[in-house]
């Protein structure tokens, strides 16, 4: 090991131990977490256990668990078991918690029992950002992310899923019945045990059929026709992959465009973003304390009524319009392939040629409204026949 940087002996005992504070730099983000949490009145924010009991075993202060939770959020450590391990080996968390290491159950229970308090902390952080003038541009970006729930797809039911599952069970029962009939005809000694097993399987399948019938009755009371057995609020949602999906939540987030701070968020069980633009934009405007706001989003949020609601609320939204033309699918150019030249009032085609202005035409419908559609098809037929007749006479020189 000569001519290499050598480490210290692990068994070396020092007379003056090193201070834990020396391992955390002055600009380390954990110092911000410490300062922010220490200034919060956790009891008024709705945290349980902020006032200790006079009897019983002492508990962890909510501030300690809140620091662990915020640290995990900033460093993308979501699992309570991983947070427990980090408290035992991570120097930053050791400094932040004073070498305390709560077990994963305590961390998980804190997040479960203090949802309202954590939401109030997020709101207080946004208010602090407003006081520090961090939202000066009044511009936010809106997007949604899907988070998987603990409810599996097998525990999520729709009427179509129930019908499909019942059909599969009926086919399985029929196969087992056919196997029993074959066993009854042959009657060998070794098939007696097999017959008993088949009868047990048929009984279990019939029990599943009864449960599915109960689920079908419950589905009639669900407004959206979905039922999740493990997590009742979770819903089945399509993802970007073809033919894929997941049971979870659609979390809407509005982020400040300058400092990339989360201004507002909302958890929904709607798989589409089409109706989420106005609610999250209004929530961002109120959180930032603005009367007018600009927001950008992707084409998945495009909805005329939603854009109208934002405009009425003083929110200017910028988002692309979805491409609904089938020209691309049929190998043709669509409107987006033509470039408008405002100076010349002309369009440039993909071949580089100019489509110049020719004339303006107005089409007037003369038929009465109640009979318009019926008359129009016959009129178009007469025009088509007449045009073909003229073209034939022109080709024949008559």
The whole-angstrom Rg is 34 Å
Count of DSSP H/I helices: 12
- Summed over residues and divided by their number, the pLDDT gives a mean of 82
Shape: flat
Task: Report the structural category.
Answer: alpha+beta
Q: Give the tally of structural domains.
A: 4
Task: Please summarize the sheet with the most strands.
Answer: 6 strands, mixed
Entry keywords:
3-stranded antiparallel β-sheet, 12 helices, 398 residues, single chain
Question: In summary, what is this structure?
Answer:
With 398 residues, the chain is α+β, with helices and mostly antiparallel strands.
Strand and helix layout:
Layout: H1 29-38, H2 42-45, H3 62-74, H4 80-89, H5 91-97, H6 104-113, H7 115-131, E1 139-148, E2 156-157, H8 159-186, H9 191-219, E3 227-228, E4 235-238, E5 245-256, E6 262-268, H10 277-288, E7 293-296, H11 304-312, E8 315-318, E9 339-341, E10 346-348, E11 354-355, H12 372-396
Parallel strand pairs: 1-7, 7-8
Antiparallel strand pairs: 1-5, 2-3, 4-5, 5-6, 9-10, 10-11
Helix pairs in contact: 1-3, 1-5, 4-5, 4-6, 8-9, 10-11
Descriptive notes:
The protein has 398 residues and is α+β, with helices and mostly antiparallel strands. The protein folds into four domains: 20-132, no CATH class; 159-225; 235-318, no CATH class; 325-356, no CATH class. Helices cover 44% and strands 13% of the residues. It has helices spanning 29-38, 42-45, 62-74, 80-89, 91-97, 104-113, 115-131, 159-186, 191-219, 277-288, 304-312, 372-396; strands at 139-148, 156-157, 227-228, 235-238, 245-256, 262-268, 293-296, 315-318, 339-341, 346-348, 354-355. Strands 1, 4, 5, 6, 7 and 8 form a six-stranded mixed β-sheet that branches. Strands 9-10-11 form a three-stranded antiparallel β-sheet, with no helix packed on it. Helix 8 packs antiparallel against helix 9 (191-219).
